Amino acid sequence: MPQNPVLPLRGSLRLRPAVGPWHRPAFSVAVATGLPNLLLLAIGRLDLVPYTSAGTMCALFAHALPYRERARTLAWVVAGMTASVAVALTAASLTRSVLALVALASLMAGLQKLICDATRLGPPGNVIFTFVTASAFFLPQRLDAVPAHLALVGVGGLVAWLVCLAPALVRSHGPALTLARPRPPRPLRMHLPLAFRVALGCALAGGASLAAGVGHPYWAVVTAAAVHRANTSVSFQRALQRTVGSLLGLLVFSVAVPLTHLPRAGALLALLFVAACQVGAEATITRNYWLGQVFVTPMALLLVSLGSAEPVGTLVGDRWLDTVFGAALGMAGAFLVTNRRAGERLTAALHQARAAQRLARTDPVGADARARLADALHELRESADGHAGEWWQRPVPLQEVAQVEQEGHRMLALLTERQAAHV
Question: Are residues 44 and 89 in the same domain?
């Protein structure tokens, strides 16, 4: 009989210890975004902040990688971001149909989910791409201005690339290679259901926002993309966390925004507040997603308000409605699209783990055998977790999964000892 996951409520808002060196992406994105923003403030062109910020957001990626791999990965991230924004700005200049723009933004969100999952880009994954691209679809645009705006995106990306690689000037060694070894991509077909789920959820959320007359339907698209995680159960938890965090973030924005409208120092205070929110988001988001949203929400609204004269009440109301639409209809997409590939992925992961164990027995001191076994065990745990919380899945032999994992980790520890002794 198919099994259904439990939709978790208990513990969804509980804070956990911070995970990883959060300060690297936090201060990198704050510095990378702040430098061009201060220059734009000096020349009186804060209306161009969305374009430079689209590139500088790339500074959130690849901090766990050694410098050479980081440089290559960030170059691809910047290229992907620039290409995504190019599509969005071109579409915005060619059509005024909001329905068409919502549809295109939803398709782009699904494609970004597919590529990021297939390439194992890692956190923050597709959400940053969708956040930037979806908003770009709704920027007022002329076709002849697109090249100049894309050049600003590229400049922002270059700043992000330089900031993320700047530590190499004072510290020649990057993070340990064993902690950042790129894992091979899983087959593309395994990720198609989740990508289609994201596209459908975004289209439903954006359409509902449009039908309700909300002025910023792309916020609903971004929310729907953000709630989709590895399975239905985790997505439900993420939807709850995003809703709570966004509501609290709106309160923070309502308190802080009057300071940004002061006659002389208002714009500078807004930029400083954006930087502070970027640091705060990275410092807290691993403790719980809702806490990170308390900082992400006012940051996003401030970036919008820099180039807009909309009343604060309208921005707050639109953001709250779009959060509700995105969370609810994003989850509707999760229930409507069943990920039947989850069981296939878990079965393949079991076969790979067994094969990696057999290889390790024939090459007890080989670094390749150890790395392959570590990759196989990681994939097995990831696929088992994804399957366990997915909707309408057939039961799997959990005892067999646990046995293969136990044997694999024992063998991995033994290989590590042998390799150290051999060296």
Answer: yes
Assigned token pair, 200: 């459908």
Mean of pLDDT values over 339-359:
84
Tokens of 141: 């645009």
**pLDDT tens digits along 68-111:** 999 999 999 999 999 999 999 999 999 999 999 999 999 999 99
Strand partners, 393: 3
**Structure-block tokens of residue 24:** 């690297």
CA–CA separation, 241 vs 43, rounded Å? 39
Q: Same domain, yes or no, for 132 and 272? A: yes
pTM to 2 decimal places: 0.86
How many structural domains are present in the chain? 2
- Whether the CA torsion 150, 152, 156, 161 is positive or negative: it is positive
Q: Where are the alpha helices (DSSP H) in 95-231?
A: 98-119, 126-136, 146-165, 177-180, 192-211, 217-227
Length, in residues, of the chain = 423
What residues make up the domain containing 74?
23-167+188-336
Please report the pLDDT score of residue 264 as a whole number.
78
